[in-house]
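Final report, section 2: Outcomes. Of the targets proposed, Helix-turn-helix transcriptional regulator is the one most frequently requested by collaborating groups, and we therefore present its record in full.
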Amino acid sequence: MANSKYSYEEGAIDQVIGLLHDLNGAPEDALRPIVEIENPQQATDLAQVLVALCPDSANARWLRSLMLELFFSTGRLTACLDLAREMQMSNLPTDIKESAWVAELMCTAQLDSDTAVEIARSELRRRKGRLKGSQAAIICAVVIADRCWSRGALEEGLAWVKRVDEQLDGITSAYWHMHVGIDVALKLVDVGQLQRARDLWSLISNRSRHIANPCVEVGLQLIDTTLNIHQGRWHYSSVGTKQVDADGKTPCLEFTRPYQATLYAMQSVAASYAGQGEAASELLRLSRRCSKSAAGTPLDPVDLWAEILIEDATSGSEGVRTLCHKVFPQNTHLQRALFALIPGAAAFLTQAMLELKDAEAAYNIGAQVDRLRRDNPGIATMTWVADHVTGLLEGSVTLLGSIAQNHPHAWVRYIAATHLIAAVTSDRPAPAVDIESVTDEKGSSRWQSLSSREKEIALLAAEGLTNQQISSRIFRSPHTVSFHLRNIYRKMQISSRAEIGKHLPKTEV
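The predicted structure is given below as tokens.
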């Protein structure tokens, strides 16, 4: 009986193997719909079996490329790296090897961004900066744009993003084409180029109907959520997600998809804007679980912003300040990225510091935002950020009114309106130096445009004091003094401190 059972099982296994051999020999257009099933884990397993059974078959080449995409889209970065390196060492056509090189670079960017940037810059130097006709060069540009974005260098990053957008059709892999398209669209939203982002969303959405991939679906949902937030539609998808497998420890497949952590964090932000605190906290918890599941995923600006909003709702401005003091000293790049990429974040934190009467912290934010504006002169969103913060620091009804009426982001218009009301109804502090009665006719309007603090600093600078000496006199940091001096130059229409004296009142008090 035992022998009979063994013979039956052995025969069944032989039949399955025979079927798989036949399947591997099927034409590519017949095999693709079978392998590219909705469940990426099952698709990966099937592709691996087919390649293992017939490693030299006609289908083995594209099946390996498919496995690279599936490994990446399910967060199995180590497996993706191993396969990519193996393929590059094999006797494969050049285009297949290039696809493997692309997968290796994309995985490296997730695990070790510094190394990925080094590789990308080296490859582009070798190609003399040309992207056209090279899938690998286009992906290198994506990696460099990511680095610029993470450090608030939006102008440099946008130049790379636009080049990638122009060459998007040069990416031959359907999956990498959609993945890069999603990345480009998200960056264009960050700098306010919403129409092109919508166009890319439509393009990728139409293409994804023919190539099912959960990673792409999540990326499209992230673009849609981000655009909705810009327009004031602060809703989010139902959580309804199994968090762990049956053992309570292993992260489920959903939590390893690229974009999943950021999507949950963005949905948390939307919930906070809508006043749904419990939902915001739950969504951030899911985001953190995703980040932990995806190897090498750092805390990003969206994740941090979601936490800041929740902290403000539960602990107020003091809780926000404590969180910032904990996070920012360890990651100055994250702070720059937060101010550059999250609409209203810099102004929100400035107002929180002013409410705590922490003028030093508020003016330090102003100084950092001013540097960001100077570093990114061609990025319109940075002008909005700087004007909003300056409006708060100076109590400028004009600047705050302009933001409240004209800013493209709905939530920023809302908070600017609250800041405007506060500026109109609050009493401004008395000037530190009484100079209101001593103005000459020519310089009157320029001088009167300065805030009380700026007038004080202008007088000290005119006396010949250095920034360090002024900072000691007014108990503010040298960075804050520099920030004020730049505003003084702009308002008085001068280019250096040496010219300040020409526009001072004739009589000093």
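The first helix runs from residue 2 to 24.
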